Amino acid sequence: MKAEPPESSSAPEVGGGWPVITGWAKATLSPKGPLLWQTLLHKSACLSCAWGTGGQNGGFVDELGEPLQRCLKSVEAIGAELQAAVPESVFAGRSVAELQALTSLEADRLGRLSHPLILREGGSHYERLGWDEVFKLAEAAFRRPPQRVASYSSGRSSNEAAYLLQLLLRAWGSNNLADCSDLCHAPSTVGLNEVFGSGTSMVSLESLQQADCVVLVGSNAPANHPRLMNELIRLRERGGSVIVINPVLEVGLLKFGSPAFPIKSMLRGSEIASLFLQPVPGSDTAVFLGIQKALLEAGQIRHAFLAAHAEGSDAVLEQLRVTSWEAISACCGLSREELEHAAAVIARSNGVVFAWAMGITHHANGTANVHAIANTALLSGNVGRPGAGTMPIRGHSNVQGFGSMGVTVKLRAEMQQALEALLGRPLSSVPGYDTRALIEAAEAGEVDTLLCLGGNLWGANPDSQQARRALGRIDTVMYLATKPNQGHFHGLGARQTLVLPVFNRFETPHRTTTESGNNFVRLNEPGTTHLKRADLISEVGFLAELARRLMGHDPIDWGRLQDPVYVRQLIGRTVPGYGPIAGIDATRQEFSVEGRVFEQPSFPTPSGKARMEPTPLPALELPEPAHFGGLAPGESGLVLALITARSYGQHNTVVYKAGDAYRAMPHRQTILMNRADLARTGLAAHQRVTVQGEAGTLEGIEIIPGEIREGAALMFYPEVNAIIRAPVDPRSGTPAFKRVPVLVRGGLRPLATVPGAASAGAGAG
Known about the structure:
Blueprint: E1 15-16, H1 18-28, H2 33-40, H3 72-81, H4 88-93, H5 96-99, H6 104-108, E2 117-120, E3 127-128, H7 131-142, E4 149-153, H8 159-172, E5 177-179, H9 186-196, H10 205-208, E6 213-217, H11 221-224, H12 228-237, E7 241-245, H13 251-254, E8 255-257, E9 270-271, E10 275-277, H14 284-297, H15 303-309, E11 310-311, H16 313-322, H17 325-332, H18 336-348, E12 352-356, H19 358-361, H20 366-379, E13 389-392, H21 399-404, H22 413-423, H23 435-443, E14 449-453, H24 457-460, H25 464-471, E15 476-481, H26 487-490, E16 496-501, E17 512-515, E18 520-524, H27 539-551, H28 564-574, H29 584-587, E19 591-592, E20 610-611, E21 637-645, E22 650-651, E23 654-655, E24 670-673, H30 675-681, E25 688-692, E26 697-705, E27 712-716, E28 740-745
Parallel strand pairs: 1-8, 4-5, 4-14, 6-7, 6-12, 7-10, 11-20, 12-13, 14-15, 15-16, 21-27, 24-26
Antiparallel strand pairs: 2-3, 2-16, 8-9, 17-18, 18-19, 21-28, 22-23, 24-27, 25-26, 25-28
Helix pairs in contact: 1-3, 7-27, 8-27, 9-20, 14-17, 14-18, 14-20, 23-25
């Protein structure tokens, strides 16, 4: 395997820019360049994030007809799908034990899956098998008590596959529909539903372009959602403001060079953040309480708006009055003046969009964080009108579509009633397993069969050993996938593990749809695969055939669901806001989901008003070193709040590049630390240290000094999952990946104490 060149040892001064052009040139001028260009121009949605483009306007064009909207991350994702088939010698010649030694990057670069595979109980190698045997095994595995059958899914699949998955499980009697969103934006869905009665973005792309301020929280958009940067560049050019709130000073959020603006942006980069706040990790609720308190004291609360359009504001305002500035600043590590400055920018703006990613949701109080943001939007009157509102930034390209299709353990009452009418009977009332509950149930021996529609369940979970144990107690685990990933080698079933190759989005032989993070439904045209002599199946085809074998014509004609046109007709009948999809094959008209974008302050709650509630300051104490077994005599160390993060060249658990040039982290076994923390402990840049979490230890980790909040550190997911046990937000079930206690060991000086590290102001410095 060809080695990657080492990443630069110093961080760039601008995100994006020439490296993006270089990456494009390297990819598109390669031997598979013509096929890559053909795919880029194909009428299908981007494979990467939910801010991607594509569909009926063509691969480079967004829903407003704007061209040149493709990022390098999209190119990387497509390039990985255009690999040759995995050589026969890989599975025939390498044992599972050998395959388990592969990194995420190495597993992905094995190539495309081209034939069904099975690892049988007691076996050491994956073996080929035919689809007839696959379906016999799958049917037998499903014929277990419904509560012992479960699924897990990834947001790269289509709406049609998602709808069939949940229909199959619910008709069979199971609500165990775990999804990758349980591990990322579930707090956004839960929190926004509680406040506004709708769990998605209330801001369309057109509405965003009317804002003059964006508050961007817990997002590394230059790496994870590069196309969003074009909108921030435009906003700054029209005189608007961007307030960035992030414990890590990400270079691309300071300055970004976008190829979409070759003259005014590419050469020197565009200014992004007009104000950058670096709070203590996990203190976001305190940050927004401070902004709210500053608005209150400056007389900038929209009281008439609240009286007309919100409930519960009195309790929220009372909390602001009784919460002291000292308590707020001690918790978040930001001064009163910094928070007042942010509030002043919001107050003088005509329209503010509050946007966030997993830096908000990956906390033990993730849902409360979302409530705090929603409260701030309401108190300042920035909801229910063009150019203003709340906008969670989703990761996977169709993760929001999966929620719309009913792949959730919190099914909306309106959709439940429609499904019950379709099936002619009540759905099971037994609560389903979300992703963390699924792992716990499997570890307890309560799951017999697991069907994974894409994704990497093993790699996406904290505490990798627990995930391995849990999956190892499930009789049958089935993975529908386009490429191998580490989960196929570590997440093995007790009796049998099946890895089943499927078409990807741009080669599926029938039309599919996806939904963007801003509620826009795109139609993807059919395609063909470049793989020769491959034995692939469409996800719709597999799910419909399994349902037919299990249920025949009861209570609907499951065999007819092989036709995606019919699936879309059922979606139009049963999924709220999706009526136009029933005729999309004839009209080719893409659409925005009805009832999601609020241009008037009227919400789908019982009263039509938003529902506010107080958000308590979080407790952010870090444990003492004794929690990890203490330090050896003469050993220095420091307990830090660890942020787990993806690198620039990564999508979810799939790694495309080993290093991260933006953060000057040249490989995966690194830890980003604040220079002041290094000075206190006698640790040095590029020193190799031991990082100990509550689930294990990683040795030989290289220290990279960086612009990160004092008392915090950053390491790469999924590798760091091997050592962490992340607490879970009880309201959403999402793990707190962005604040995990770890002990960094190394050096010869005694333990140094970070000011406030064991108090509510952890790392306030």
